[in-house]
Amino acid sequence: MKLKNPSITQVIRNAVTVTDGMTLLEAREFLLKHRVGRLPVLDKNKKPVGIITEKDFVRAIYKFNGKHVSKILVRDFMSKDLITITKNATIVDCTRLMQKHKISSVLVLEKNRLAGIITKTDIASVFLTQSAEPLRVSDIMTKDVITVMPADSLLLVESLLVKHKISRIVVQRNKKPVGIITNRDFIPAKMPKWIRDFADPKEVEKYQTNPNPDEFRMNQLSYILSFRAEDIMTPNPVTVNSDDQVSSAVLIMIRNGIGGLPVVKKSLLCGIITKSDIVKAIA
Prior knowledge:
Elements: E1 18-19, H1 24-34, E2 38-42, E3 48-53, H2 54-63, H3 74-77, E4 84-85, H4 91-101, E5 105-110, E6 113-119, H5 120-130, H6 137-140, E7 147-148, H7 154-164, E8 168-173, E9 176-182, H8 193-198, H9 201-209, H10 229-232, E10 234-235, E11 240-241, H11 246-256, E12 260-265, E13 268-274, H12 275-282
């Protein structure tokens, strides 16, 4: 795929950061408040020393099982192998780094200081304005889709996310997409559907806004045994047709703030297109 303007300066943006001494709970609040998928980590000298993503929060459930969440620090579970780039690099350079290291963002450095961040969302936006050739969704979509059924346990969902190193799972019934679950749905797990439907509205609000997830037993695997995929999935997911243009899929993703779309053909699930597929196409 050719781009009209390959410079990365058009996609560099300021990053929301945390310090390595913050707790998991504090970092979680930053993630949710700013609605971002990743947080570069700075040390006391303001130098980047790591990065944490939504996937890291999911993995932390396994790694720190039994440890009180208020005791877990950012430095305990952040990714320390930083992949960085400089301002004179190209978008293709950036996408190839993402592909090679299987990451969703690259930090931009200037004199060893954080100058910004480039994410797959930024790369996808470039496709809309800089792509020099049209592409169909079926040309770049991932055909082997990891799926679950609505009644499957969250233990299965979580294990599939970790095992396959993916960010979302399609919930399907009779080969039709009926929901989608992402890593963000585990920070912490949403309340069961029966509580949402029948509980007192004030209790529901208290449950949803409680800043301390201890009541969800966030760091104990047993808490998800009573939940099913349908309890936390986003129902009626937005889909695209396999014959649609990739530009249409990108526009839908950006407008809805999502990273992937189930692909259908005659209403039946036939694939999934994500920002990773777009990065791969450009690389």
